């Protein structure tokens, strides 16, 4: 039996989270350092650096790495990397310290997430980053908006992470480090693990994708994004409960591991699909399932751009390979789940529900076909939307009462 | 994009079928050679040698190769080979020529299928071959029975094949040589092709196996055995028509190629699964689908012995790798096709029909659940069994009239 894939870079995991007395001492020292606020995305990246998900990065990228990653999807040392991992500060903040200084990175809740030795301050061409990474400069794109909202000065240098962001406490048993998933895979005797990336509840189309992987691999890691999404998306606690209900009722226990990771969505489509494969390699997965419009948003990417980009990178860029699967759905003539590759029938034979339509059905109490989603999953979503509607009503009535 | 796997041995296909004037001349010469009868299995092997399916063999095995293949699954030169490919003659026949002589190999219909230069005559320990290849000496095993029925003297040497056995004419468009399937794959732009081995009509469980391969590979070769089976099995023309109906109605045209190959079944279970993968490598397939009890018969093999044996051979024995899939069925609680790996429900939630029960339902006109088999397939099988019953009735009434 072959082993799990190597961590990216080939020299083992490089978690940046301090432990024990080192953590204690660094937390004390951090109090006296210049405090620089970080965005939600930057905080997620720090926690990922902390747990070793971004191995072998030791911190935020230099100007040289940033440019090389944008242009050629590689660090200056040649290692494959598809998306810049950067932190930024305003001029007002950046002027309070010189290159070489140590700083404290503070999240919106006031917690010092990490300390950092700043080896370089630099400014970037944000439009160039957006064109390179997102293939657009359109400010409607949520990833573009995040880059455009960054402060003026990028800061490069190694970080020492002081917190897991509370994810372990908020998602007990669900939030796992790459070291932990690798240990879990080994304990199960798995070597060929496929990662199923999700930022949504899983309906039958997603179950089908994951089960194709179960049929052909040792197991599947159902890996939920636990960071932030764009407004209107279903929050992580609801999503992960719905996924848990699906797994409990429709999966064989020894074929699946449900877990989560701390990043925010960038919505970079093809480039983010590559990042997903990269960090899943660190988590020990040999395959990354890539479905239709992976990590996309709106209509910025062709539905299979994220398939094609894996053919455009060097063969040895990543050990983790894509498991490319076409658009999936229930087909009434097939009498089963299928994809564009396995169903020869017409669109009208297929059950298709948009997210908008599903939400409307759930809110209004209309029955959703069992061929679209499992009743156990729908119950959880229905309760969530009912709660939302109550809040909206409370807000509206509060408003009208003024 | 990677290329198709190399022919076994790595030096290109080695078809032994003569062409043009060489064929004409050899046919004439063959008339004057000692005529040795061959069995149905030996005839199938000759045609496979003719079309290059047994590349790089140039003929029937020597005593040294036979022993090495039985014992270690390799030729004396070290090349992986899981099952002896041999021809035998009675003492009476073998005494009519010396080692070094050329002979003509004649099938039951009187056709000279090949000529052969006999480099060695040898006798074998048939029980040793049976224990090695079939894991049993039980004479109820149809493969054992075939070996035990072989004549006393094995003949080794290179062959020149003079006929395709009429397969091309009997199965136009369906019978293809390895060269032809490779050309077809290349024309379709396929490099990652999975072979689905079948000696039965395809019901939904088989469709599901093939479609898992379609979801994850460039295409699937549905490859029917066109040689002989044990008595009572459905003949190749009926099977291939039923499979054609399934493909026409339930597969996407560009994802599947239906074809057939000329061998008889040996029922060697795990060892035959390896032979299937070996000759599929010659046909250009990167994967061989291995389901439950692959190439088995009765209860001679554990249901997943043919999975395990692929882990027991050297990593570089074959370029073609197994696509191992568990036992598959319709599950009413899943509301779909599933396997033991993807369905957590109880046996009573699943639709299971034995071959015997299916035949009874088809013969008696009972409705077969659509979750078990496609109506287009069942129509063809129903007509076949109705024809059989008529023949039986004709025979019976003829008999009673005497």
Assembly type of the shown chains?
homodimer
Beta-strand content estimate of chain A = 15-25%
Number of helices of chain A: 14
Approximate helicity band of chain A: 25-40%
Structural account:
Chain A is an alpha/beta fold and 402 residues long. Chain A has 2 domains: 146 residues, Sulfate adenylyltransferase (Roll); 228 residues, Rossmann fold. In chain A, helix 5 packs antiparallel against helix 6 and helix 11 packs across helix 12. At the A-B interface, helix 9 and strand 14 of A face helix 9 and strand 14 of B.
Labels describing this entry:
alpha/beta, Sulfate adenylyltransferase, Rossmann fold, 2 domains, globular
Note the topology.
Two copies of one chain form a homodimer.
Chain A: H1 20-30, E1 35-37, H2 40-51, E2 59-60, H3 63-72, E3 87-89, H4 91-94, E4 102-106, E5 112-117, E6 120-122, H5 126-134, H6 142-148, E7 153-161, H7 167-170, H8 178-188, E8 193-198, H9 204-216, E9 219-225, H10 236-250, E10 256-261, H11 270-283, E11 287-290, H12 305-312, E12 321-324, E13 328-331, E14 336-339, E15 350-351, H13 355-364, H14 375-401
How is this structure best summarized?
Two copies of one chain form a homodimer. Chain A is an alpha/beta fold and 402 residues long.
């Amino acid at each position: 039996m072959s082993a799990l894939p190597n961590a990216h870079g080939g020299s083992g995991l490089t978690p940046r989270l301090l432990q024990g007395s080192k953590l204690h001492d660094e937390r004390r020292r951090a109090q006296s350092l210049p405090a620089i606020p970080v965005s939600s995305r930057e905080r997620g990246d720090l926690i990922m650096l902390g747990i070793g998900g971004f191995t072998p990065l030791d911190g935020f990228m230099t100007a040289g790495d940033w440019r090389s990653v944008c242009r050629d999807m590689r660090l200056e040392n040649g290692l494959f990397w598809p998306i810049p991992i950067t932190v930024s500060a305003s001029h007002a903040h950046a002027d309070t310290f010189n290159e070489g200084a140590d700083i404290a990175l503070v999240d919106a809740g006031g917690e010092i997430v990490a300390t950092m030795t700043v080896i370089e301050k630099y400014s970037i061409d944000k439009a160039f980053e957006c064109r390179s990474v997102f293939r657009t400069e359109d400010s409607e794109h949520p990833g573009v908006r995040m880059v455009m909202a960054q402060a003026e000065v990028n800061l490069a240098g190694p970080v020492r992470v002081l917190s897991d962001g509370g994810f372990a406490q908020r998602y007990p048993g669900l939030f796992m480090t790459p070291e932990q998933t690798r240990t879990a895979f080994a304990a199960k005797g798995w070597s060929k693990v496929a990662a199923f990336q999700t930022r949504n509840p899983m309906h039958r189309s997603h179950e089908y994708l994951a089960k194709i992987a179960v049929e052909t691999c040792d197991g599947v890691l159902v890996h939920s994004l636990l960071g932030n999404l764009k407004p209107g998306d279903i929050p992580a606690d609801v999503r992960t409960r719905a996924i848990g209900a699906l797994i409990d009722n429709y999966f064989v226990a020894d074929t699946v591991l449900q877990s989560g990771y701390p990043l925010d969505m960038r919505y970079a489509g093809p480039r983010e699909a590559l990042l997903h494969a990269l960090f899943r390699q660190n988590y020990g997965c040999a395959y990354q399932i890539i479905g239709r419009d992976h990590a996309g948003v709106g209509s910025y990417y062709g539905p299979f751009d994220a398939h094609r980009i894996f053919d455009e990178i060097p063969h040895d860029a990543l050990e983790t390979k894509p498991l490319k699967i076409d658009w999936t759905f229930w087909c009434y003539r097939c009498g089963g789940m299928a994809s564009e590759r396995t169903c020869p029938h017409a669109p009208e034979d297929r059950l298709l529900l948009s997210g908008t339509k599903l939400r409307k059905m759930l809110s209004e109490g209309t029955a959703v076909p069992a061929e679209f989603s499992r009743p156990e999953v729908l119950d959880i979503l229905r309760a969530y939307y009912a709660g939302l509607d109550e809040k909206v009503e409370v807000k509206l009535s509060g408003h009208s009462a003024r």
